Amino acid sequence: MSKEASNGDHNSAAKAPPTPSPLRFSKFFQSNMRILITGGAGFIGSHLVDRLMENEKNEVIVADNYFTGSKDNLKKWIGHPRFELIRHGTADFELCGNVTEPLLVEVDQIYHLACPASPIFYKYNPVKTIKTNVIGTLNMLGLAKRVGARILLTSTSEVYGDPLIHPQNESYWGNVNPIGVRSCYDEGKRVAETLMFDYHRQHGIEIRIARIFNTYGPRMNIDDGRVVSNFIAQAIRNEPLTVQAPGTQTRSFCYVSDMVDGLIRLMEGENTGPINIGNPGEFTMIELAETVKEVSFNLSASPPGCESGLVYFLSVAHCFLLINPEVKIISVENTPDDPRQRKPDITKAKELLGWEPKIKLRDGLPLMEEDFRQRLGVPRKN
Ligand SMILES: NC(=O)c1ccc[n+]([C@@H]2O[C@H](COP(=O)([O-])OP(=O)(O)OC[C@H]3O[C@@H](n4cnc5c(N)ncnc54)[C@H](O)[C@@H]3O)[C@@H](O)[C@H]2O)c1
Ligand SMILES: O=c1ccn([C@@H]2O[C@H](COP(=O)(O)OP(=O)(O)O[C@H]3OC[C@@H](O)[C@H](O)[C@H]3O)[C@@H](O)[C@H]2O)c(=O)[nH]1
C-alpha cells in the first residue's frame, strides 16, 4: 500500500508523477556496491566477475596486467555500464592494471586475486611473483585503508608447503622450504597473509583470507601447465597424459563455481579466516589420469542442472564421450618440492560459512572438456 493511500489521500492517483531524475540511468545512481577484483581477467577472477555482475546492485571494476589472464574471459562485460577495466600506473601496457603500482579508486570491497597461480608461470619470473604478492598486497591494503573497504585475499593451500599433517586444517603452520623454487609463491602468499593481519590489527582494516585448494573448470589457460588442464588438453589432442613421478602424490580438486560461491560467502560473512576453501575429495595423479581417460560413467553422478528427462540422457551420453580410452598415460620427471599430499579440512568453512562443495570431479570434468574442445577446435566424434 502506498504512503498516500495509507494516509487516506484518495486523490493521489490524479496527481502528476514527479519528474524522474535524469541521473536515474547513471551507473553510480543504480549501484550500491562498488567491487574491485584484482586478477579479474584470470580463471577464478573472471568467474567471480560473472557471479557478481548477476547482481544489478553491483558495479565491478577489474585490475589485471594480463600476465596469465585474458580480456577474452571478460568479453561479455566489456562496455557494460556497471563494468570497468582499470588502467593505471604508467602508459606501459604491461603496467596498466598492475597491482605493484598504487591504485586510486573508490570501492567498498576488494577481492585481491592478482598473482600467477600455475607453478610454471609463478616460477618463470620469481622476483615478479614475490613483488606481486608483497608489494601488490601492500598496495591493495593501502587502498582498503584509504577508502575503508573490506578486502579478501586469495591465499593458497601452498602455505602448508609439503604438509606433515593430513588433512590440513587452518591451525597448521605448514612446512615450506623458504629458499626453494616454489618459495616466491608459497612464501609470497605467507607474507601476504601476515600483511593482511598486521593491517587488521594495526589499522582496523576488515580482512578476509581464503586458503584455496586446487581449483579447475572452464576458462583455465589451455597451456597453463596445471594438472587438470594438462590432462584434459592432452586427452583431447590424443597426446599421452603426463603423470609427474611418482604419481602417488595427491591433490583435492574443487570446481570453480563452488569456489566462487565460497569466496562470496567468506566476503559477506563475519569471519576473517583464514578459511580453507576446497573439495576434500582426494586423488593421486595416477587416479586423476585414469579418471580423465575412463570409459565407464557413474549414472548417479549427473552434471548440475542435468537431472531429468532428455537433458539427463544427453548428459550421460556426453560423459561417455568425454573420455579418450585410447590415450596413454606416461610417467615424466617431477619438479623440486612438489607437495606429496594435500586435502583440505573444511570443518571451518562448513561451520562458519555454511559452505561445502557440491560438484564432484566426475561431474566437473565434462563441463571443462566442453570448453576446452571449443577453444581447441576439436569437436567430439559422434
Ligand atoms: N586456481 C587454483 O587452483 C588456486 C589455488 C590456490 C590459490 N589460488 C589463487 O587464486 C588466485 C587466482 O588464481 P587463478 O587460478 O585464477 O590464476 P590465473 O593465473 O588464471 O589468474 C591470476 C590473474 O592475476 C593476474 N595478475 C598476475 N600478476 C598480476 C599483477 N602483478 N597485477 C595485476 N594482475 C596480475 C593475471 O594476469 C591473471 O589474470 C591467485 O591469487 C591464486 O594464487 C588459485
Ligand atoms: O602435467 C602434469 C602437471 C602436474 N602434475 C602433478 O600434478 C600435481 C598438481 O600440480 P599443479 O601444477 O596442477 O598444481 P600444484 O598443486 O602443484 O600447485 C597449485 O597449488 C595450488 C595453487 O596455489 C596453485 O594453483 C598451484 O600452485 C603435482 O603433483 C604435479 O607434479 C602432473 O602429474 N602432470
Automatic annotation (TrEMBL):
Coiled coil: none annotated. GO terms for molecular function: NAD+ binding; UDP-glucuronate decarboxylase activity. Pfam families: GDP_Man_Dehyd. InterPro entries: NAD(P)-bd_dom, UXS-like. It is found in: Cytoplasm. Pathway: Nucleotide-sugar biosynthesis; UDP-alpha-D-xylose biosynthesis; UDP-alpha-D-xylose from UDP-alpha-D-glucuronate: step 1/1. One of its GO terms (biological process) is D-xylose metabolic process. Its EC number is 4.1.1.35. GO terms for cellular component: cytoplasm. Residues 36-366 form the NAD(P)-binding domain. It catalyses: UDP-alpha-D-glucuronate + H(+) = UDP-alpha-D-xylose + CO2. Belongs to the NAD(P)-dependent epimerase/dehydratase family. UDP-glucuronic acid decarboxylase subfamily. Catalyzes the NAD-dependent decarboxylation of UDP-glucuronic acid to UDP-xylose. Necessary for the biosynthesis of the core tetrasaccharide in glycosaminoglycan biosynthesis. PANTHER family: UDP-GLUCURONATE DECARBOXYLASE, UDP-GLUCURONIC ACID DECARBOXYLASE-RELATED. This is UDP-glucuronate decarboxylase. It comes from Populus tomentosa. The lineage of its organism: Eukaryota, Viridiplantae, Streptophyta, Embryophyta, Tracheophyta.
